[in-house]
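C-alpha cells help. Consider this.
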Amino acid sequence: MRIRGLCLALALIARLGGALFATETEWKQQLSAWFSLNDDKPSIPRLALRYEPDLSLAVALGKDWKLDSELSLDLSATGVAPSWRSPDIDGAIKPYRLWLRLSSSRFEARLGLQKINFGSATLIRPLMWFDSLDPRDPLQVSEGVYGLLLRYYFKSNANIWLWGLYGNNEAKGWETLPTARRTPEFGARFQAPLFSGEAGLTVHQRCLDPGSDATAFRPTEKRFALDGKWDIGVGLWVETAFVHRDDPATALAWQRSLTAGIDYTFKLGNGLYLLAEQFFSGYTPSMFGSGGDATAISTLLVRYPIGLLDGLNAIEYYDWQTRRLYTFAGWRRTTDHWQFNLMLFWNPRLMQTGRAPSGSAMFGGRGFQLMAICNI
C-alpha cells in the first residue's frame, strides 16, 4: 500500500507539473533529527531522522476559482541501540499529503490524502477522529486520511462540511478497531457563530473490521459530537462526543467523552499563558445511562516567552482513576530557518492509550529528548 501510494504521488507530481507549468509553485523542505534517552535498564538510546519535501501548485481558473494541490512525502529513519550496542535501524518512505483542491471564496472540494481535524479542545480531544496530533510534538506530525472533503461557507460565517473516506485500513485517532476493508465512511459537520464564539455539530458513520473471519458480522459505528468555544475575557470551550456500536455482543454499546477547558494570558513579565482542561470518558449501556468504566483526567498547559527567540512550556496530565501523573517540560529556540527543542519528561513506563496521552513510546518513563528542525 505504501509503495503504491508513493508511485501514485510521483505520477501525480509529474502530471501536474506538466499541466500546471508556469503557475504558482512553492517548494518547501523540512529536515528534523532527534535523540532520546530514558531510564530504561539497560539504557536504550533512540535516534531519528525525518525529511519532508513539500510541493504546492496553484493555478487560477477564471475570476473566482482556483485549482491547487499539495504533494509531500515522509522519509524517515529510526535507530534503537540497546545498551549502546548493535543498533537496529529501520526506514520508511510514504506519502504524507497528496491532495487536489478546487476552491472559490465560499466553496472547496479537496480530494486525496489530507488532514481533517476540527473541534475546540487542545490537550485531550474527544473529536480527534481522523488525526493523531500530540500537543507535545514540536513537529505536529499526523497521519492523513484518504477521502473527499467538501466545505461551503455562508455569508453569516457559518460553514458546512461533508466528507467521504475510503481506503483507510488502520485505526485513526481514538479508534481501537480499524474500518472494514473496502467500505466507505461518511460524515458531516455544521459550524456557526454563537454569541461571542462559535459552535459545531458533527456526525460520522463507518463499518468496523470483523477481524480474520470475512463472513463475521460487521458492527456499524455511529458518532455524534457537539463542541463550542467562546471568548468572554477568558477563553472557554467544551467538546463532547457520543460513539455507538450496534454490536449485540457488546453490553456497553455507548462511549461518552467530554472535555471542558479555559485559558488566559496573565500580564506577568512577557505574558504567562495558562490553559486547563478537564476530560471525562466512560462506557455505558445507553446514551445517557450510567455504569461501566469511567475515566477522569485533569490537564494543565503553561507557556512563557523568554524573549523573541526563546520560550518555555510545560504540560501536566493527571489520571484520577490510576492516580498517575504525566509530566512534560520543554525549552524552544526559534530562528528564521531553525528550531531547537530540549524536552524533559517524567511519565509511567507504560503509557496508557485512551487514558493519558498515548503519543509516542519515546515519552515513556523518565528522560529527555533533543530535537533540531530545519525549514527551507
Observations:
- The chain has a mean pLDDT of 89.
- The chain is about 5% helix and 55% strand.
